[in-house]
Description:
The chain is mainly alpha-helical. It is built from 11 helices and 2 strands, in the order ααααααβαααααβ. This is Formate dehydrogenase-specific chaperone. InterPro entries: DMSO/NO3_reduct_chaperone (IPR020945), TorD-like_sf (IPR036411), TorD/DmsD_chaperones (IPR050289).
Amino acid sequence: MKNININKVRAIYYGLFSSLFSYIENEEEYENIVKTLEFLSLTPIDEYSNEAFININNYLKEEGFSILKEENNDLFFSPSTTFIPVTASFYTEDRDDGQKRVEMTNLVLKSKFRKDSKSFKEAEDHICFIFAFLQKLIQEDFSVENRLAYEVFSSILNEMIDEFINNIYSHENSRFYKNIAILLKVFIELERSFYNIKDSKNSKNRKQPELFHQKKKEFKQRAKRNFDEVTTL
């Protein structure tokens, strides 16, 4: 029963992060995020996540949906702010649509799930899809450790996540998301302990000043999403 409850919470965390790093378009999505954060804040992982939850809840009460939507856009979609890469390929090859997309696609093909291309237009190694896929794998059976989830975490997510977290935390427009970065860092360390995996030594560990001089993203229209990015065969 203990493992079942732990896995249920793990799945909730993965689903939350998938939603937070997607385009937050309407108040229904916002309310779902708020409810999930409130639920998880009842049992924080440690003192750092507890403080982050307090800051997050205060931010949401003071600022609300419109400001969160603006910050979400500034960090992940705006062409006028510092570029945050969101694919595993970029963190290993400095480009999208690289080997990590191929690896992630092959891992997806091992499962009964497939990407819903109508609701999710990005690549399989996009951070939101990785989180959503891990959530689905854990939800398959809460009573067992999913071997495929281990493969996805160890070979895809683990190699990019530290630099991704650092990019969010250090972004010039990051206020709400600075605390989300703390939650994600604490959660990832817990997952590494769960899987008995060390942090990756393969990431480039770029110096921080270089992150602030990457080229800006080109603007492109974002497709509407219903956050059900992974479907069952």
